[in-house]
Amino acid sequence: MWKTEDFPRGKTPIKKNVQGLIESKSKEPKFEKSPKESVGEIKKSQKRKSLHISTQPTKKRRISGNQKVFKTPLQDDISTGLRVLGCVRQVFDHSIYVSLPGNVVGTLPITELSECYTHLNKLVDCEEKYLSEDIRSPDELLKPGMLIPVHIERIDEKQDQNAKKIILSNNPCKLNSTLSVKSLADGMLLFGSVSSVEDHGYSVDLGIKGLKAFLPSKNAEAFIKTCNCGSPLSVGQPLWCVTQLKDKFKCTEGENHVLTVTIDPLAVQSSVLTDTSNLNCFLPGMNFKGLIQSVFDGGLVVNVLTFPGHVHITHLWKHPKLFSVGQQN
Question: What region holds the S1 motif domain (predicted)?
Answer without folding.
Answer: 81-171
